[in-house]
Design a protein that fits this description.
Keywords: Calcium, Cell adhesion, Cell junction, Cell membrane, Cleavage on pair of basic residues, Glycoprotein, Membrane, Repeat, Signal, Transmembrane, Transmembrane helix. One of its GO terms (biological process) is homophilic cell adhesion via plasma membrane adhesion molecules. The protein is mostly beta strands. The chain is built from four helices and 41 strands. The chain is 8% helix and 32% strand. 20% of the residues are buried.
Length: 752
């Protein structure tokens, strides 16, 4: 038990060993409170195992003591394992709760609603947690000032809230609360402590500013500007130097002409009234202003009160008279005059007044601005007299207006300046004008657009009328578009040249002008590409003279063209194709199982017999009969004993044996001399070449000798191209009578 009163040593526990029945056992302990801090708090009787406590214990310093007990024999043998012992200190309510913060300050807005949370206070109790010793209750003992009661506290959580909406910072800006916290659930016998917290009220803009006086009076001399004439102070109960109290002033009435300006002095918060535009005593002797004041921040409606309104005051400004110079009012005066007014005529001039007498007597006038020197001015009256013709189209006239600046002076040398604007009424004195030259590009369009310009005003300008002279109607047509433009179009395609076209143009009132328009018809895409020389010639074709170099170039070009045509003719007529036949010793077909791709059949692949070298210059070559030959309705047929030529044109069936004749000696079947081949194929190949040249549609071009893949080395047979590309319509019945060794070849030749 914490804070035990004894007597000490106080028995707390006893340990026993079962080995004591067989051995003499001695007991000992170790751990905190024995041989560690705090030392000698516990000890054990070595014979009985009784454990004693020697003094009182503070639980807040030592909550528990983990010890170990040992049982040993006299010779040091330990029949038991060490026994862990845990001593807990029972709590005693010996610590009063206390507030964590010595100084606690909360803040809350003034005029806040009932139930607004102000803050939460917390206290600490060092006794054992979650026991009755640390169950705390909070209470407000006192509020300073104590009336009315504005705050309450939750007894368990310590949250402080408002109880009324009547917190007014301007009445009291700080409250102090004396708080109590008690343990044992707030029971009277519980321990307690007290503390003080401070609650500050935050300012709201619930008080409008107001002037210290209900009206003000001041005076100022006329024609004075940028001068301060009055300062006005205001009072505001809200917190100083914040947007809730800083003033914003406005002139509500009396400043329609913008003569006054009001501002706020940032240091004193006063209103500063200034004159920024001259006042005229002759117009008003005094001005009455109504001025209002607000805060920078928006007004906040206080509880049980109305929304604050703007405070206003009246300022009377007396204007003091002063002797002043002439007055030029208005600064700009407009007079009208007719365009083209002749010299020597008078116009009404600018008039100034003396504000004291409201007349212009005694004033002198002088002209200080007249760009083109159109006028002279009467020194006494200010009237103008023309010395030049007034021209509305002058470059010095802007928007039909010509400006003259005049200065008026009194006898004391004081002056004012005014501007006289002469507004010129347009007079129709300028006919429409157009460009003197236009260009028609034949590749882009066959017409030109005419856009006249009239220096007069719109009342004397378009719509325009366009007319062509009779002499130009044969070649040209003129169309009017929307009264402002016209289209000049060719009646026919004209030569590239320059043409003079007379055109007359009238404005809306009939003022006209005749123009000689030069039209340039050019071979171009844009007018800037036209490079023609200017000539006043019409319908005349230019002379073209060729130089000797041009003639030489034409001759050489013609000769070159003839050479090209002649070369093409020779190549076509004399194209030769070589036809070389293989050795007659290799004319027999042999069985070959080699079907792999071979060499392309070309002249370099063919082994020519030595005795037939002069025959290779015939008009046919292996694989390309004449290059452009045409196939005839003939086909080669190979049978045992010779080659057969079957002609579809005739009914005869000729073979090499029949051509050899009966007088020839008997040769080995399948072998013939070169003479036999030559006499058999030469006339027929010649006929094919002739037919190829005669047939323009090249229907016989399919009869060319074709190239085939290489069919193995060592074959005694030559090419079989002559019988491998037969058409379906050519009748292949002869293949049905071939010997067995040729059946495979026959199947290859027949197209499925």
């Amino acid at each position: 038990m914490e804070n035990s009163l004894g007597p000490f040593p106080q028995h707390v526990q006893q340990v026993q060993s079962d080995a004591a029945q067989n051995y003499t056992i001695f007991y000992s302990i170790s751990g905190p409170g024995v041989d560690k801090e705090p030392f000698n708090l516990f000890f054990i009787d070595k014979d009985t195992g009784d454990i004693f406590c020697t003094r009182s214990i503070d639980r807040e310093q030592y909550e528990q003591f983990p010890l170990y007990a040992y049982a040993t024999t006299a010779d040091g043998y330990a029949p038991e394992y060490p026994l862990p012992l845990l001593f807990r200190v029972e709590d005693d309510n010996d610590n009063a709760p206390y507030f964590e913060n010595k100084v606690t300050v909360f803040s809350v807005p003034e005029n806040c609603r009932t139930g607004t949370s102000v803050g939460q206070v917390t206290a600490v109790d060092l006794d054992e947690p979650d026991t009755l010793h640390t169950r705390l209750k909070y209470k407000i003992l006192q509020q300073i000032p104590d009336h009315p009661k504005h705050f309450s506290i939750h007894p368990d959580t310590g949250v402080i809230t408002t109880t009324t909406p009547l917190l007014d910072r301007e009445h009291c800006d700080t409250y102090k609360l004396v708080m109590e916290v008690r343990d044992m659930g707030g029971q009277p016998f519980g321990l307690f402590n007290t503390g003080t917290i401070t609650i500050s009220l935050e300012d709201e803009n619930d008080n409008p500013p107001y002037f210290t006086e209900t009206s003000y009076f001041t005076e100022v001399e006329e024609n004075r500007i940028d001068v301060e004439i009055l300062r006005m102070a205001v009072h505001d109960q809200d917190l100083p130097n914040t947007p809730h109290s800083k003033a914003v002033y406005k002139i509500l009435q009396g400043n329609e002409n913008g003569n006054f300006k009001i501002s706020t002095d940032p240091n004193t918060n006063e209103a500063v009234l200034c004159v920024v535009k001259p006042l005229n005593y002759e117009v008003n002797h005094q001005v009455v202003l109504q001025i209002g004041v607000l805060n920078e921040a928006q007004f906040t409606k206080a509880a049980n009160s109305k929304t604050p309104t703007m405070c206003t005051t009246t300022v009377t400004v007396k204007i003091k008279d002063s002797d002043e110079g002439p007055e030029c009012q208005p600064p700009v005066k407009v007079i009208q005059s007719r365009d083209g007014l002749q010299p020597g005529l008078e116009l009404q001039g600018y008039k100034a007044l003396d504000p004291e007498t409201r007349s212009g007597e005694g004033l002198r006038y002088k002209k200080i601005g007249d760009e083109d020197n159109w006028f002279e001015i009467n020194e006494h009256t200010g009237d103008l007299r023309t010395i030049k013709v007034l021209d509305r189209e002058s470059k010095f006239v802007k928007n039909d207006q010509y400006n003259v600046s005049v200065v008026a002076m009194d006898t004391d040398g004081r002056s004012c300046t005014g501007t006289l604007v002469v507004l010129l009424e347009d007079y129709n004195d300028h006919p429409p004008q157009i460009d003197k030259e236009v260009t028609i590009c034949q590749h882009a369009k066959d017409y030109a657009v005419l856009e006249p310009v009239d220096a007069d005003g719109p009342e004397n300008g378009p719509p325009f009328q366009f007319f062509l002279d009779n002499s130009a109607n044969k070649l040209w047509n003129l169309e009017t578009k929307n009264g402002k433009t016209a289209i000049l179009r060719q009646r026919q395609i004209l030569d590239y040249n320059e043409y003079n076209v007379p055109i007359t143009i009238k404005d809306r009132h009939g003022l006209n002008a005749r123009h000689m328009l030069m039209v340039r018809v050019c071979d171009c895409t844009t007018p800037s590409d036209c490079k023609m020389n200017s000539k006043n010639v019409r319908d005349v074709k230019p002379n073209v003279i060729l130089g000797r170099w041009a003639i030489l170039a034409m001759v050489l070009g013609s000769a070159l063209l003839l050479c090209i045509l002649f070369t093409c003719f020779c190549v076509t007529a004399k194209r030769t194709v070589k036809k070389c036949f293989p050795d007659v010793a290799q004319q027999n077909l042999i069985v070959s199982n080699t079907e792999g791709p071979g060499e392309e059949v070309m002249e370099a692949n063919i082994r020519l017999p030595t005795q037939t070298s002069n025959i290779c210059d015939t008009s046919m070559s292996v694989g390309t009969l004449g290059g452009q030959g045409v196939k005839t309705q003939q086909s080669f047929e190979m049978v045992k004993g010779g080659y057969t030529l079957d002609s579809s044109k005739g009914g005869g069936h000729q073979t090499l044996e029949s051509v050899k004749g009966a007088g020839q000696g008997v040769m080995e079947p399948g072998r013939y001399t070169y003479t036999d081949w030559h006499s058999f194929t030469q006339p027929r190949l010649g006929e094919k070449v002739y037919l190829c040249g005669q047939d323009e549609e090249h229907k016989r071009s399919e009869d060319y000798v074709r190239s085939y893949n290489y069919e193995g080395k060592g074959s005694m047979a030559g090419s079989v191209g002559c019988c491998s590309d037969r058409q379906e319509e050519e009748g292949l019945e002869f293949l049905d009578h071939l010997e067995p060794k040729f059946r495979t070849l026959a199947k290859t030749c027949v197209k499925k």
